[in-house]
Amino acid sequence: MNRLALFLFAVLVGCATTQTNAEGTLPTFDKPVERAIHSTVLVQDEQERTYCSGTLVKKTRHILSAAHCFPPGQTFSLVGLHGRYGADVVHLDLENDIALLRPRGVEIRLRDGVPLARKPGRMGESVFALGHAKGDAFPFTLTSGIISYPHRKDSAGHYVQATSPLVPGMSGGGFYNSRGELLGANLFVWTLPVHCMFPPCGAFQDSPMYGFSYHPLIKDALQSATK
């Protein structure tokens, strides 16, 4: 899996500048998306299976992810453009599902990664999310949407509600504004039963809502971790 993961990164980097190959047209990236892909890491278990994602934050040498990806006793490694390496969990906010990791055994420069947005996102602002959907099955999945509500506080903690779809495996990946600045991490999918009056949908259908990190909490955590 180590070679496969690194191969996937190499292919994606090549896609950013290559238009065609023997099989046809390759995808091209907008600059913000290309930078986000370069800064995304795979979070893998001892069997080298990807189960979560993370994002290297510029000027911090830290990786942002989701707290639920790192239960007590979980052994994990990271894979990205810097290769495979270990990391220590240096900040874990279970209430708001925030995790910060400090890589070890690898040299990461301050200019590596994506910049943290200067301000929280606004209601109606265009956003995108990036992560490894279904673990190894759909790596580097990109979804887009808008911010539905910029700050909610309930039993799930502080979070941002947006329409950018998420699936398992994208947890911990980056949540971005249209400029490719990091707003937070992908956190959860919440499904609400909605009554359906007409067949063939049945009595209920799932109406998903997607939750993402609240930017001020990320900013404060990074400032504390990098002092």
What does it look like?
The protein has 227 residues and is mainly β. It folds into 2 domains: 2-114 and 221-225, Beta Barrel (Thrombin, subunit H); 126-215, Trypsin-like serine proteases (Thrombin, subunit H). The protein is built from 3 helices and 14 strands. It has helices at 2-15, 31-38, 215-225; strands spanning 20-21, 24-25, 40-44, 50-57, 62-65, 77-80, 83-93, 98-104, 126-133, 138-154, 157-162, 174-177, 182-195, 204-212. Strand 6 (77-80) and strand 7 (83-93) form a beta hairpin. The chain is globular. Residues 13-24 have low confidence and may be disordered.
How is the secondary structure organized here?
Elements: H1 2-15, E1 20-21, E2 24-25, H2 31-38, E3 40-44, E4 50-57, E5 62-65, E6 77-80, E7 83-93, E8 98-104, E9 126-133, E10 138-154, E11 157-162, E12 174-177, E13 182-195, E14 204-212, H3 215-225
Antiparallel strand pairs: 1-2, 3-4, 3-6, 4-5, 5-8, 6-7, 7-8, 9-10, 9-12, 10-11, 11-14, 12-13, 13-14
What features would you highlight for this structure?
227 residues; mainly beta; Thrombin, subunit H; 2 domains; six-stranded antiparallel β-barrel; six-stranded antiparallel beta barrel; 3 helices; 14 strands; globular
What would the principal axes of the Cα set say about the shape? Answer: globular
According to CATH, the fold-level topology of the largest domain is Thrombin, subunit H
Radius of gyration: 18 Å
User: How many alpha or pi helices?
Assistant: 3
CATH superfamily of the largest domain: Trypsin-like serine proteases
Structural class: mainly beta
Shape-level CATH architecture of the largest domain: Beta Barrel
**Main beta sheet: strand number and arrangement?**
6 strands, antiparallel, barrel
Order of helices and strands: HEEHEEEEEEEEEEEEH
Strand arrangement in the largest pleated sheet:
3-4-5-8-7-6
List low-pLDDT spans.
13-24
The total tally of domains equals: 2
Indicate the CATH class of the largest domain. Answer: Mainly Beta
Strand content: 35-45%
In total, the number of strands is 14
| Average pLDDT score | 86
